[in-house]
Amino acid sequence: MVSVMITIFFRPSVFITMSGIIKVFQSPTFIKLLAESIIKKDCPSFSFVQVEFLGNGSYFVLYMAQSCAILLEIQSNITKISMKQSVKKCLEVFYRFDIQPLLVILCVDKISSTVRSLLSPSLENSHWQIFNSTVWAEKCLIILKDALNSSSSEDELNKLDPLVAFTIYFSDDELQKQKLRDTGNPFMRDIHDC
Predict the structure, then answer these.
(1) For a FRET experiment, which of 22, 27, 78, 157 has its CA 20 to 30 Å from that of 190?
(2) How far is CA 110 from the centre of its chain?
(3) Which three-class secondary structure state does DSSP give residue 15?
(4) Does residue 78 contact residue 110 with C-beta atoms inside 8 Å?
C-alpha cells in the first residue's frame, strides 16, 4: 500500500490568488506531475478530494487514489510546532483511511535550525532531505527552496526536479520564478497553464 503526504510551506505571493491556488491544486496536470515525481513505478491516478485552510495560513489539500493518499500542506515556516501539525495530519489520514502516508514537505521560506539539524540527505534525489518519521509516516521528504543554485545553467534549470519547481512556484521568490520562466522550465510552464 503506497501513500504520499506532501507538505508545502509558503507565504502567499501577491501574484497567486486564493482561487488561482485552488485551481492549481485541482488541476489533473498538477496532480499527475506531483504524484509521478514521488511515485516512480506504477503510479496510480490520484483525484482531488478536499482543501482545508487553517487560520495560521496553512493549506491542507487531500488527494486519493486506490489505497493511497497524498496530503499537500502549505505553510510559511518549518519549525518544531509546524512539524507537530504535519504529524497530526499524517495521523488523521491514517485513522480516516488506514493508510500510513509518505510526507513530502516543500519548504518555500524558512526552516528552523533545529529541524534542519535533523535532516539527512536522500539517496534517491540530491534535492531531497529525509526526516526520520517511521512511527507516523512511511517516509518524510523535505525539499528546500534553496536547492536551486544561483549559478545553475539553463540546462540544469530545465531538468530541475519537479518538487523544487513546485516549491519555487508557491514561494515569494519572484527572482527564482522569473529565472525558471525565462529558461522555459517545463514544470513551471505546466503549473502556469493549470
Answers:
(1) 78
(2) 14
(3) coil
(4) yes
